[in-house]
Amino acid sequence: MEKVITLTVNPAVDKSTSVAGIKPNSKLRCDPPVFEAGGGGINISRVIKELGGTSLCMYLAGGATGSRLKEMLTEADILQQIIPTSGWTRENLAVTDTTTQQQYRFGMPGPVIQEEEWRQTLDHLDEILVEGDYLVASGSLAPGIPTDFYAKVATLAKRKKVRFVLDTSGEALIMGAQAGAFLLKPNLGELSALCGVTSISSIDLEPLAKQFLAENPCELMVVSLGPRGALLVTKEYTEYISAPTIHPQSTIGAGDSMLAGMVLGLAKGKSFREMAKYGVACGTAAAMSPGTQLCKKDNVEELYQWILSRTA
Questions:
Q1: Would you state the pLDDT for residue 291?
Q2: What is the mean pLDDT of residues 295-308?
Q3: What is the number of structural domains in the chain?
Q4: In principle, which of 145, 166, 239, 262 could form an S-S bond with 181, CB 3.0–4.6 Å?
Q5: Does the residue 185 lie in any domain?
Q6: In sequence order, what are the residues at sequence separation of 6 or more whose Cβ sits closer than 8 angstroms to the Cβ of residue 295?
Q7: Which residues contact 100 (CB under 8 A, 6 or more apart)?
Q8: Which one is catalytic: 14, 133, 148, 256?
Q9: What is the pLDDT, as a whole number, of residue 312?
Q10: Which is nearest to 117 in space by CA: 87, 96, 90, 147?
Q11: What does the alpha-carbon distance between residue 146 and residue 248 come to, in Å, rounded to a whole number?
């Protein structure tokens, strides 16, 4: 298996709870909260661990919440490399109203990252990356990190001959993709931004995705279609992967679980088609888990076999 390094520049301690009815100007009695380590790259490392793989989880963290984050990942037996920050790691909140089964998600902006802190991140990557590694940059940029940060990471990865995987949004995604990536995992909204259009119809999806790959230094793309599955796009072919129908509990972490499955599949030598199917199985399995929980290995394997049986 090839080495996988995940990068999270705006991690979080994710807190989830539930309450019987949400209304304003009232004291709401919540159930005991559940705390979990969060942030795109951290979630990916957690899923890779759940699926039996290994990764190096690199992230920026500071303050008491940063210490708690380190403790949770240590308890999960995940290899870590921490870039210390002067600001405290953020805390996010997800609340489920048990009377309606509606979930409310509150994402905080994160601490302001100083220039020496994000530059230290690049220096650490330069030190540890080795040709053939997979580097997965996933999640939002924290305040203070320049918009072209992932583009800088892409340039570094290219120089080190590392396979760069990018999963973010907005200008950070556009600039990072234009700098070059091995794998992108946009949803329809993110693909619209990449292609410079306001929306994408089913008819336009494949030609627009292939056009983007033809015009940018990216090798392949898996477009997340939510409960409909995904579209695998390379310069040579496209393929739709349908997701099994399930009873969803929460969509938190589904995208991260999907990407983790794909990266682990690639690192283990799966073909592009196999890794996309495995990713869809992981994303679907995550939606079966409540709150901020990610996918479970047993669910993933069952769903993956179902997908394989229908896409021989």
A1: 65
A2: 92
A3: 1
A4: 166
A5: yes
A6: 47, 50, 253, 257, 261, 282, 283, 285, 286, 288, 289
A7: none
A8: 256
A9: 59
A10: 87
A11: 36
Rounded Cα–Cα distance for residues 256 and 266 (Å): 15
Rounded Cα gap, residues 39 and 59, in angstroms: 9
Tell the residue number behind the tokens 């994000």, with chain if given.
Answer: 118
Residue 247 sits in a domain whose CATH number is: 3.40.1190.20
Q: How far apart are CA 4 and CA 6, in angstroms?
A: 7
Confidence of residue 249 (pLDDT cuts 50, 70, 90): confident
* Domain assignment of residue 103, yes or no: no
Active site includes 256?
A: yes
pLDDT tops 80 at residue 251: no
Chain centroid to Cα 169, Å, comes to 11
Structural domain for 131, as ranges: 4-10+39-89+112-310
Distance CA 295, CA 170 (A): 26
Asked if the structure places residue 34 within a domain, the reply is no
Q: State residue 200's pLDDT score.
A: 92
